[in-house]
Amino acid sequence: xxxxxxxxxxxxxxxxxxxxxxxxxxxxxxxxxxxxxxxxxxxxxxxxxxxxxxxxxxxxxxxxxxxxxxxxxxxxxxxxxxxxxxxxxxxxxxxxxxxxxxxxxxxxxxxxxxxxxxxxxxxxxxxxxxxxxxxxxxxxxxxxx
Length: 145
Known about the structure:
Largest sheet: none
Radius of gyration: 24 Å
Order of helices and strands: HHHHHHH
Structural class: mainly alpha
Distance between the termini: 60 Å
Shape: elongated
């Protein structure tokens, strides 16, 4: 047996030494307070404001840039909604609020190609903000306990 083998414990000993002594569980991937539907709402408000400015402009260069920014912001809305849907909300929430899956589905579609991402009509922005408002109401109810 070499010097290294006598100093370094065997594989079985290392496993026991490195094994967790305490297992912790949490309802989310990050500490509480990280999730907030306000992120999606702020991006959606930006989308609607861009749609309104687009409608009021005759400047073709401005309109092209507005469409690009609106599409980026719509994607951010979808991202923030997906994080809430997949990371924050858990099975007990979906049991208590059975409409939640459908609500998220409608909201992400409202931010997609058939909604704000593909439209310059501020009505689509209003629709998206309505869905986010409903999600926000449920989110804050779950925070109460």
